[in-house]
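User: Just a sanity check before I run the rest of the batch. Below are the structure tokens for the first item. I only need the designed sequence back.
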């Protein structure tokens, strides 16, 4: 019995090292399992996709920033062009206002000059409502023909200007410049002292184009024409309409001045 126990204990001591090695191996397997190659490839792919996303995102931002810079440059260019056009347009408007004012003064002075030299006025007055040589050339657009007619009026050839504006009005009755054409035809008639035709032209401007920029001037000149016709009551009413309908304008100021010159008790 004693020898058996001793033998058993000896065998146990011989197994201990083996058991220790097995325990160590099992522990190593439990703490450091073999890495799954599929999982590793997925993680690598995720990392690469992430890097690509960041690159694409950065490129998109760069392109967007470049596009914004380009649009801002275009806007600055367009703003500069708009400012140039506005300045040019204002310059043209100023030139036109000065031109109209100068011509208007000359037209106002013409009846007085004609009255001072009646013999010299006979020819233009005689042809004002009749047939005069055509001065508007064939062809051309409305703007070009209007410019030629207006130049004729500025030159002082009023009878020819009447013919030019009459032809223009007949050719372009509903044109973009029809209201201006009719107004200056009235002015040409007025300066040749054909007050009946002048009055009809100014009235047509007011009836056909009530919102025209020439409406205040047409109403003013209608009052002037009525005064020249000795229709003082009508002239007074017309000039007062100018004051009421177009306050603060040059036409209203001129209407006030003309009202002061009308006979107070004239019928």
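Assistant: Here's the designed sequence for the first item:
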């Amino acid at each position: 019995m004693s020898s058996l126990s001793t033998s058993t204990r000896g065998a146990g001591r011989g197994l201990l090292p083996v058991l220790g090695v097995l325990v160590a191996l099992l522990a190593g397997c439990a703490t450091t399992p073999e890495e799954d190659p599929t999982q590793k490839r997925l993680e690598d792919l995720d990392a690469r996709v992430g890097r690509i996303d960041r690159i694409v995102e950065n490129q998109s931002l760069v392109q967007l920033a470049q596009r914004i810079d380009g649009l801002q440059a275009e806007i600055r260019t367009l703003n500069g062009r708009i400012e140039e056009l506005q300045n040019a347009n204002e310059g043209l408007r100023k030139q036109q206002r000065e031109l109209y004012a100068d011509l208007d003064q000359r037209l106002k002075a013409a009846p007085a000059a004609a009255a001072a030299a009646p013999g010299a006025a006979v020819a233009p007055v005689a042809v004002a409502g009749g047939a005069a040589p055509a001065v508007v050339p064939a062809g051309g657009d409305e703007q070009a023909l209007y410019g030629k007619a207006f130049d004729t009026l500025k030159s002082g050839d009023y009878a020819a200007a009447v013919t030019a504006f009459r032809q223009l009005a007949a050719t372009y009755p509903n044109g973009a410049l029809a209201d201006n054409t009719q107004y200056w035809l009235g002015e040409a008639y007025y300066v040749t002292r054909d007050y009946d035709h002048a009055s009809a032209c100014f009235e047509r401007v007011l009836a056909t184009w009530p919102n025209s920029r020439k409406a205040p001037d047409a109403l003013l000149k209608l009052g002037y024409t009525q005064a020249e016709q000795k229709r003082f009551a009508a002239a007074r009413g017309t000039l007062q309409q100018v004051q009421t309908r177009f306050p603060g304008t040059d036409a209203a100021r001129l209407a006030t001045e003309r009202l002061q010159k009308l006979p107070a008790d004239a019928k």
